[in-house]
Amino acid sequence: MVVRALNRKMLRELWQLRGQLLSICLVVAAAVMTLVTLRGTYEALVRARAEYYRDYRMAHVWSALEQAPESLRGIIGEIPGVEAVETRVSSYATLDLPWLDVPGQGLFLSIPEGRQADVNDVHIREGRGVRPGRADEVVASENFFLANSVELGDTLDVVLNGVRREMLIVGSAIAPDHSYSAPPGVLYPDDERYGVFWMSREVLGPNLDAEDAFNEVALRLADGADDAAVIRDLDRILEPYGGLGAYGRPDQFSYKVLNDELTSNRTTGTAFPAVFVGVAAFLLNLVLSRLIATQRTEIGALKAVGYTDGEIGFHFLGYSLVAVGVGTILGAAGGVWTGGWMVGLYEEYFKFPSLEYRLSWTLVLIGSGVSLLAALMGGVGAVRKAVSLPPAEAMRPAPPARFKPGWIERAGLGQMLSTGGRLILRNLERRPLRALMSSVGVAFSVAILVIGMFMLDGVELMMDLQFRVGQREDLAVSFNRDLGPEARHDLERIPGVTRVEPYQNVMARIRSGHRKREVTITGLEADGQLRLIVSENRRIHPVPLEGLVLSEILAERLGVTHGDTLTVQALTGLRRTKNIPVRDVVKDLIGTSVYMNVEALRKLTLEGPRLSGAFLLTDPARVGDVNAELKRAPAVASVVSPMTMFESFESQLEDTLFIAVFFLIGFAMLISVAVIYNGTRIALSERGRELASLRVLGFSKSEIATLLFGEQAIVTVIAIPFGWVIGYGLAYLLVTGMASETYRIPLIVSTQTYLWTAIITIAAAWGSGLLVHRRLNQMDLIAVLKTRE
Amino acid sequence: MKSQIILEAHDLSKVYDMGEVRVRALRSVDLKLYCGELAVLLGASGSGKSTLLNILGGLDRPTSGTLKYKDHDLSYADDEELTEYRRQSVGFVFQLYNLIPSLTARENVSLVSEIAVRPMLPEEALEMVGLGDRLDHFPAQLSGGEQQRVAIARAVAKQPEILLCDEPTGALDAQTGKLVLSVLEKVNRETETTTAIITHNVAIGGLGDRVIRMSSGEVTELEINERRVSLDEVEW
Ligand SMILES: Nc1ncnc2c1ncn2[C@@H]1O[C@H](COP(=O)(O)OP(=O)(O)OP(=O)(O)O)[C@@H](O)[C@H]1O
Ligand SMILES: [Mg+2]
Description:
The complex is a heterodimer of chains A (about 800) and B (about 240). Chain A is an alpha+beta fold and about 800 residues long. Chain A folds into five domains: about 20-60 and about 255-400, no CATH class; about 60-85 and about 220-250, no CATH class; about 90-210, no CATH class; about 420-470 and about 645-789, no CATH class; about 475-640, no CATH class. Chain A contains 22 helices and 22 strands. In chain A, a hairpin with a 2-residue loop joins strand 13 (about 495-510) and strand 14. In chain A, helix 2 (about 20-55) packs antiparallel against helix 10, helix 7 (about 255-295) runs parallel beside helix 10 and helix 7 (about 255-295) runs antiparallel to helix 14 (about 430-470). In chain A, about 45% of the residues are buried. In chain B, about 50% of the residues are buried. Chain B is about 30% helix and about 30% strand. Chain B is α/β, with parallel strands linked by helices. The longest helix of chain B is centred in the last third of the chain and has 18 residues, at about 175-190. At the A-B interface, helix 13, helix 19 and helix 22 of A face helix 2 and helix 3 of B. The complex binds adenosine-5'-triphosphate (ATP) and magnesium ion. Magnesium ion (MG) binds near residues 49, 50 and 166 of chain B.
């Protein structure tokens, strides 16, 4: 019976406090949801990757080379630590896709006939693998397959090694070393124009003039093998065969992009939930301790009639249990939904045999556990304070707070304030810690807004620099092999082409001390105007007549700066080595680049002018004709326009970033509303009597509202700059945590972002004020005056 | 002598509708308050005194009946008009002093003088209640009687037309209660503010110009005193 009465009290009060408890519930839900979603997605990706790499035998070390006889495979297998060796032939080829007005590009890879590959096996998704003895069968990468709505049995026109042939698509597949695929030299997928294709070794080899020979090798290493030593040995073995430099997983494109994505995912998947859980904890603490403080006299009465401290304590902690419990259920349910959705988004870009979101009860437990702990800490302190008093004393109202003029007034500023102003000020000064904590809560929501919006700013800048400032050409043409200087005139002769700027790419190994890297050096013409090197502050870096220009991130990884000298070895042709100084380091945002003046580059290769491709300006009216002409040219591997790139990149962003930012803004507002709404409700319950007295004295509702909301307004106003600082700090941590060779988000927070975060926060504060304002209107003056606090 | 009517209630009823039960707190009350008079309201607990006073002061609305303040009909006044009425014309004193704990005595009074049209100086009002030397004390630093006097100073600082007091001495001992009453009497005499005081103490009736007795929500008796007795003569 006894317990039932207490429970009834709790139910009734839960209902009275529904607004406050609901806001806490939602914050707990948001905390659990972000944790379950972001961290859960991260774990799903990590799990899927591990299974994939294991089951399909992802390589540990790769190398490309000009060509070597198959017999070398045995020698490579003898390198200590090597567990399995797979050799293959590969080549880029031009695709003639009837539904595109530009040529497509394919990476053709061989697969062994009649057995699974020992390393980098493919996983068939639809259809079947190629049959031995069939010369025309290919398996297409799933991305290409889906993006172009290809059907099994469709044919594909391919110009492979200068020969046009028709191929039959018999299946779609994915492979661990191509779990993320993008055209050469580009960082983002372009699935309509680019695909990976697998063909039988017995067919592709002869086609590439590589019978019983290979031009790529991939190794799997034993546990604990020394990667660096294997790479060194492999380089040594392949040197006479035109080795293009062996590299481990950290430098493999698919691995790197996925790994970078996982790194940034882990950063956000940890940082955001931490902030939410922290704020939820803070709110629970605040509300519970206050709730219990207002019940001091009731606690005294309960004790007087014989309830034990434990029973009373448990009763009050019940509130936290309800709020945290409901919040957890909501958050877990929401998290499963958004988690599944997020994993679905990833699936569009990263292909795994099985990528599956699973609700992790560990994460749910962590989220609710931390929230609950915070609730307990808030509750226990206040309950302990109340139950530790003798009942007789607890039943008397708490002694009135001591007020004295605070430091602001003592500093002589008090004269400038009205009595109302002083009232607000003294209440703030009496509870400076609480005001400060509320400010911190709101500041975090401002900070979350800053992060969300700054990412938008950053990505926008990244895209602007990349596609609008740096790439001024209308079309970028690449050839499937280097051509002689006459290619320039061939391009210039195409009707509609108004300017041609050729470039030359040279694969090279650059070395500084013991650090080395295989890179592509892009040789640009001295007076080039179409492809510009831009740094994050929009400065355009001219190409020096001698020496290298490096991306800052690459310079950092190599441990060099402006003025240092690098040892550069060309990996093609004569494979000459030369010391070349670093003339400039560019803080660019996407990828890693190495530029040189094309004339200076030729001093390294000692070859005559060779063209890897060219940047074109065209007459806008005749772009179609130009594309058609280029599509017919057998030497053209790809034609890319920065505009289309920009558009596909943007649509990819709309999928992910905009939605993420939308969620962030929602959550940030939720936090602001929860903090301010609770702060105001608490102020109202503490000072309701005072405010009612003022109403009796003839103060109008709006004057009372000013007194009540003034405090929160100050809290909010203080919180905003505070939040900017925290936001900038968090942005810095995020930017450094997420910086990768794939992309770097610039740490530039625009004035607009600051302004918007302030506006959104003030709007949220205003809204929470309105919620409470209703109660102010309903305040029963007489009832308030009758009851003694 | 005091014949001009300042506040006139006619046929006032107040019903508290509590679902199953309807409490009739006031039943058809007719009452006039005259300019400058000191009226004492007596009656058993629950007889409707506070309910009446709250309606007279614009804190509450009657269920039916009319209330006229000078030429204004307050029966249908909206919230804004009632606020304005309280702000300019009525001063309240309650059993619980309802001072703002974070403001000093002077500031508690300024609170009102800042919003009134023809206020007294806060110092002057506090001087009148004998607290000229406690201007900068916070409520927590004052005794109950002193706090009640600050509340009176706060009520009169706006120079209201009407001063309404609901058991102003209820929480005080006899000695202090007398002091507070003497202050109220003095204010009424010196400023000629119409004053109504609710009390349980029958003896206090003699202090007023009139005694109004209530019972079960009705005014049962109106008694005019020939002469206001002085506090010293009152048997507590
Ligand atoms: N908010 C309310 N809801 C329901 N009934 C009420 C309410 N306020 C007062 N009453 C009832 O109205 C009647 C008159 O109450 P009122 O407070 O006016 O009495 P009173 O004469 O001031 O008594 P006391 O001397 O004890 O203060 C009482 O019966 C009381 O129960
Ligand atoms: Mg009463």
